[in-house]
Amino acid sequence: MAAPGALLVMGVSGSGKSTVGALLASELGWKFYDADDYHPEENRKKMGKGIPLDDQDRIPWLCNLHDILLRDVASGQHVVLACSALKKMYRDILTQGKDGAALKCEESEKEAKRAEMQLLVVHLSGSFEVISGRLLKRKGHFMPPELLRSQFETLEPPAAPENFIQISVDKNVSEIIAKIMETLKMK
Ligand SMILES: Nc1ncnc2c1ncn2[C@@H]1O[C@H](COP(=O)(O)OP(=O)(O)O)[C@@H](O)[C@H]1O
Ligand SMILES: O=C(O)[C@H](O)[C@@H](O)[C@H](O)[C@H](O)COP(=O)(O)O
């Protein structure tokens, strides 16, 4: 596989996606997107009320992110995306648009047509106890810690043939970044 032009940092809420993704993008000089910034107001309100999102809530959000990524990658811009991307189908939408999940995406089909998106998935993985401990300390975020259980229930960890690495959230942030940088050098 060619060197990745896009990197997805995924995992349940509180696994460190935003923290790791932002630092990594700055270290690599790549553009950074935090999927949390792209939720429509209804999704934020729903999560704020303690109700987990469902496929219907997530699909338009993921499709929009796919369009953004594809546009950047097609123009030669390298990107890091922090996004929970809990299910395999969600990751397929991010890389291939809704078509990849047997659905239909608008923008992406018109623009940057067959641009191959070489994506490396970084799964930040950890125990419920460690991650909930971090979420309980995190302040000023719309995602309530009570939703963590449903995030674990929904999670489909990446598996072959996805191009992925899994890193434990028990490592500190510098160790996580170093591991990703090392993987990228080998690609
Ligand atoms: N590897 C880590 N070790 C210790 N604390 C971490 C680590 N990664 C993230 N954190 C802290 O955990 C909390 C959740 O991280 P955050 O990046 O917001 O996760 P996410 O974007 O996946 O929801 C934050 O307070 C962050 O500072
Ligand atoms: O920082 C966080 O707490 C998470 O990133 C969180 O915001 C959430 O995981 C998604 O943005 C919601 O969407 P999902 O229900 O699809 O994870």
Describe it:
The protein has 187 residues and is α/β, with parallel strands linked by helices. The chain has one domain (6-186): Rossmann fold (3-Layer(aba) Sandwich). Helices cover 45% and strands 13% of the residues. It is built from eight helices and five strands; from the N terminus they run βαβααβααβααβα. A five-stranded parallel sheet has the order 2-3-1-4-5, sandwiched between helices. Helix 1 crosses helix 8 (173-186) and helix 3 (55-74) runs parallel beside helix 4 (88-96). The N and C termini lie close together (8 Å). The model is unreliable at 108-115 (pLDDT under 50). The structure holds adenosine-5'-diphosphate and 6-phosphogluconic acid. 6-phosphogluconic acid binds at residues 13-14, 17-18, 35-36, 52-53, 58, 84, 86, 141, 143, 151.
What order do the helices and strands come in, and which of them pair?
Blueprint: E1 6-10, H1 17-28, E2 31-34, H2 41-48, H3 55-74, E3 79-82, H4 88-96, H5 107-110, E4 119-125, H6 128-137, H7 148-154, E5 164-168, H8 173-186
Parallel strand pairs: 1-3, 1-4, 2-3, 4-5
Helix pairs in contact: 1-8, 3-4
This protein binds adenosine-5'-diphosphate (ADP) and 6-phosphogluconic acid (6PG).
Residues 11, 13-19, 82, 134, 138, 169, 171-173, 176 line the site of adenosine-5'-diphosphate.
